[in-house]
Amino acid sequence: MNQTRIKLYHFLLIELFILCVVLGIGFAQRRTAVEVPVDLGAFQANDAYSYDGSAWTISEDQLDAKGFLVGADADNGNKIHLTSPKMRIPKGDYTLVIQFDDSVNQEVELLCGKTYWRLLRAESYFLSKNQTSSMYHFQALDDIPDFQIQLKYNNYGVVRISNISIVPNANGLKRGVLAVVLLSLLVNYLFLHREWIRTHRTRLMIMGAVAFMLSAPLFAYGISGGHDLIFHLVRIEGIAEGLRNHQFPVRMDPIWLDGYGYPVSVYYGDILLYIPAIFRLFGYSVITSFKIFMVLVNFATVWSAYKCFRGIFKDYKIAVVSAVAYSIAPYRFSCLYQRQALGEYCAMIFFPLVALGMYRIYTATKNTKKIIHEETVILAFGMLGILLTHILSFEITVFVLVLLAVVFIKRTFSKPVIQSLIQAVVLTCLLGAFFLVPFLDYYLNVAAQINSDVQDGAGALIQWRAVYIADLFNVFSNPFGWDDEFLYNRIAMTPGLMLMIAFVLAIGFILKGKASKETKIFTAWSTFLLWMTTDLFPWDFIALHIWRGVSIIQFSCRFLGPACLFLSLTLGSVLVQMKELPRGKELLDMEPEEAAWTQMQGRVENRRNRMAVTWFLVCGALSLFVYLQYYSEYDFVLNFQDTAELDNSAVTSFFLREDTEEGPVTKGLMQNTNILSYEKVLDEGIKKEFQVTVGEGGGTLELPIFNYKGWQVQDDDGVYYALSDGTQDLISVDLPSGFSGRLYATFCVPWYWRLSELVSILAVIVTFGAIYWQRNYQL
Question: pTM of the predicted model, to two decimals?
Answer without folding.
Answer: 0.90
